[in-house]
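A quick aside before the break. I want you to see a complete sequence-to-structure record at least once, exactly as it would be stored in a machine-readable document. Don't worry about memorizing anything.
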Amino acid sequence: MKVIEIRDVHKIYDETEVAVRAVDGVTLNFDEAEFAAIVGPSGSGKTTLLNLIGGLDIPTLGEITIAGTNLRTLKSSELIDFRLHNIGFVFQSYNLIPVLSAKENVEFIMTLQKWPRKERDDRTFELLKAVGLEDRINSRPAKMSGGQQQRVAVARALASRPKFVLADEPTANLDSKSASKLLEIMEKLNHEEKITFIFSTHDARVVKMAHRVITLEDGKVVSDEVRE
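That is the input. The structure line, written in tokens, reads:
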């Protein structure tokens, strides 16, 4: 079942004399519960494509439909609400809220979604324990290492059980042990909760675990390998 449909999508930045085609005519489909990696050299369009899929950016041309909803048809407020209830993001720069603790960051989306307090508390502790941060539950981002902040960011993305998780270099700041643990957690949720995961990555560990590997060059799809 196709849950993400990308049709001839272009993203062109023309603020300078020479227009930059960050994404150049991409057409892709993703099925429910895919575990896919988007790879390619720096500047190939990986992050831009993730931002377009997640509705954080608008295509110059083309259409993106997620779970039957054409993102182009949504007003700004509707797009924000759609992301809130459907998509979890892991940003390369973490994007944690500095004045909130690890616990408060992880439960933030659940709070906006009005989860009951006990369910929020249980889910937050479950995820922080899973990423090895149960002892840093009350720490703010400034008191945590980059790797610890990245693990909080992953836990936050998974907390509300979104249908889709878009992760931009999710293991970039992690040691080998932490990266492997996180990938195991995400693969487990992929199987058990049917969450669709799409990563942009340079990490061979992520590529090895992915069930599908899409390669971009100069904003174009140059290969799309589906593995058994």
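Two observations worth writing down. The chain has seven helices and ten strands. The beta strands are 2-13, 20-31, 35-39, 61-66, 69-70, 87-90, 164-168, 196-200, 212-217, 220-226. We'll return to this after the break.
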